[in-house]
Prior knowledge:
6-stranded parallel β-sheet
Amino acid sequence: MKRFLIHGYGKSLDISESEIPANGGFYIFDAELSSGDARAFLWAVPWSRKWLAPWNPWAQLQLYRAERKEIQKDALLERLGQELREFQPDQVICHSMGAQLLVNYVERYGLPESVRSVVFVQADVARTEVLPVIPHVSWSNYWCWWDSALWISAVLNLRLPCGLVGSDDKMVSNRFFGLSKGPNLHQDVWRDSRLYQILRQ
Length: 201
């Protein structure tokens, strides 16, 4: 199976990374990335790490707002579409704000015929979002209510993300996945081998 991986918010100021990682933070897919069976789509907005910015709430908030704007830009959506068409994945896996980026793209352009499933993990997408109906695509959503990063998103955006409480969309298969890996639960889900085993099924 060919997987297309879309990372979420904050890779420029990830506390556990000194720079934006080439794998997009998807560590459990490193072997597939190396073999060419997976591709990471890197879209993070570059941000200065001076003055301890990764630990600065104001810097994190500024980056969050900048990336919320970035995922609406035509240039980014066109680049995403180009890579999807080139890679022709069977499955698209999105994390956090990366899920909203994909939704923005799909609402305008749909998905390549090769795509059979879309998987959201801790998605920063409103629980009430109605996803486009694409006959050849199934949608799955992995959520966990103790994700502190998504609680912050809920406050900032005045809505509950589906990665926190599940999606209201009846065509989405909601699946609870309890976060337990690393000090940054929201990001370190991609270091959790349990999730990799589930996604391989």
